[in-house]
Here is the input.
Amino acid sequence: MSVRGALAIFVKTPGLSPIKTRLAATTGGNNARRFYDLSLLATEALAKAVACEVPSLQIYWAVAEREGVHAMRWQSFPTLFQGTGDLGARLSFVYQDLLTKHQYVCLMGADSPHLKIQDLKNGVLLTQKHLHDQFVLGRVADGGFYFFGGSIPLSSSIWRAVEYSTEQTAFQLITQISKIGGFDFIEESFDVDIESDLRRYIALNVVREEFLREQQDLFKWATDLLITGRY
Here is the structure.
C-alpha cells in the first residue's frame, strides 16, 4: 500500500499581502511582483513534476490570507489557510493539520523556484523513507531552510521557539526537534529575498533536462532585468 504524503507550499496572495518587499526595495515593486508571479509558475510546475513521480503525494497551496484561500490564482491545487500568528505558529498549524490527513507532511515556500526536480523529489522520498523515524531538512545558504519533512507530531512551542529569518534559523530548528528525532538532509540551496540573491541566476548553468520550461523563463527574465538594469 502506498504511503500517502502531503507537500504544502506557503504562499501569499498578490493584492492581499505585500509581496517580496526586500526585493522591491532595490528592483522596484513591479519587478518584485513579476518575479513572484514567475516564481509561482515555476514552483507549481516543479511540484506537479514531483507529484507525477510520487503519485501518492498531494500538493497544497498554504495561503497566508483567509480571504485568499478561494482566489483564482490557487486553483491548480487544493488550498488551506495557514492560520494566524507568527511564522512558527503558521508552520505548526499547517503541519499538524495535514498530519491528521496524511502519513507524512512536507513544507516549502515559493522563494526557491530554481530547485531541481531531483532535489525536491529526494526530500519527499526521504521523508517517506524515515516514516516515524527522522525529519528531513533542506537548508539555505543564509542559515534558513527551504524544505522540511516529517511524520512525527510536533508541539507549537517547538516551532515557536525558533527565530525565523536569521542565520540561526535552521540550527535552532534542528536543536529543538533533535530532542524528538534525528535529521536527514537534502542538497543545500538558496532563497531569493534580495537583489544579490536574484543575481545568482546569471551564474546558473541552465541545462534543459535539469530545469523546467517555467524555471528557464524565470532565469531568462531575471538575467535580462539585471543585465539591462531596467528598474
In short: The mean pLDDT is 93. The chain is about 40% helix and 15% strand.
